[in-house]
Amino acid sequence: MRQRPTQQIPALYHRRIGDIVVTALSDGTLERTHEMMLNVSAEEGARHLAAAYRRSFVLSVNAFLIHAGDRLALVETGSGDYLGPTAGHLLANLKAAGVDANEIDTILLTHMHPDHSAGLTDMATGTAHYANAELVVHENEPRHWFDDVAMARGTEREKKLMFQQAREQTLPYRQRMRTFFKGEVFPGVTAIPAHGHTPGHTAYLIESGGEQLLIWGDVVHMPEVQVPRPEVSMVVDTDPVAAAATRRRVFDMVASERLLVTGMHLHFPGFAHVEKDGDTYRLVPEAWVQTL
Ligand SMILES: [Zn+2]
C-alpha cells in the first residue's frame, strides 16, 4: 500500500539580496493565547484571527543564515530544549540545508529571549553547538540579562527562561562575544536599534548590490493583530510603550521605503512588505521565487 507522508519536509527557503543569499530556517512553532497581548480584548483578538482564517495564535519561530562571500552568519539560534517539542528544530533544518554548525563564523542575536538564544548551547552538556562562531549582540542585552538586580524583579518564569537562560546559553561563548551599539556588525549587515521588546532588541539591515532586506526580529509576534493594531504590545516586552513606538516607527520606515522585511515570528519564511493604509497597516507576503 502506498504510504502517506507522516512528517513535514525541512523548512528552508533561500532569498537572494544582491550578492548575499539569506536562508530562512524554521525552528518550529509556538502556540500562544491572546493573554500574551496587551491593549487588546479577547473578543478583538478573536476577530483578527477569524479575519485571517486562523483558529489559534500559532507563532512561527524563524532563524536566518546570511551567506556573504566566504563568511557565514546565523541570525538567532532557536529555542533549543527550553520551550517544548513544537520548537527547537533549527539544528535539524540547518543539517537539511547542508550546513555544518561548525562552518558558521558569526551568530547575530536580535535579543536574548529563549526562542532566540536558547539554541546556542546543549542544555544537558553545556557544550556550544557553534564551536567556531563569534557571538554578536547589542551591548544592552548582556547588561540587562546578567544584572542580578533586574533579575530579582522578574517573575519566576522570567528568572528561569530569560535571565538564567541567557546566562547559561551564552556561557561557552563569553571569550568570543562581541557587543555593539549600532553600525555594521557583519559584511553587508547593519544593526538598527529597535528597543522596547528588550533593552537591546535590534533589527538587522542587509544590503548588497542595491537590494535591501530588514530582518526586524520581534517587532511583531502576532501578525494578525499587531500589524493592523501596532499599539498592541506583549506581556513579555520589557517596555511595552517603547515596543509599540518602535513598531510604528519601523512600519512607517519600511512602508515608505517599500523595504522587504522578514521577522522571527512572521509566518515562515516571512518575507513580506508592509503597506500603510490610513492609520493602520497591512502585511503583503512575498510569493515563492524558484530561481536564485
Ligand atoms: Zn521571539
Structure description:
The protein is an alpha/beta fold. Helix content is 23%, strand content 29%. It is built from eight helices and 14 strands. The chain has helices spanning 42-51, 90-96, 114-117, 140-145, 148-152, 156-170, 223-226, 240-256; strands at 12-17, 20-32, 57-68, 71-75, 106-108, 134-138, 177-180, 183-186, 189-193, 202-208, 211-215, 260-262, 272-277, 280-285. The strands form three sheets. Strands 1-2-3-4-5-6-7 form a seven-stranded mixed β-sheet. The protein has a five-stranded mixed β-sheet with strand order 8-9-10-11-12, with no helix packed on it. It has a two-stranded antiparallel sheet with strand order 13-14. A hairpin with a 2-residue loop joins strand 8 (183-186) and strand 9 (189-193). The radius of gyration is 18 Å and the shape is globular. The termini are far apart. Zinc ion (ZN) binds next to helix 3.
Structure summarized in a few sentences:
The protein has helices spanning 42-51, 90-96, 114-117, 140-145, 148-152, 156-170, 223-226, 240-256, and strands at 12-17, 20-32, 57-68, 71-75, 106-108, 134-138, 177-180, 183-186, 189-193, 202-208, 211-215, 260-262, 272-277, 280-285. It is of the alpha/beta class.
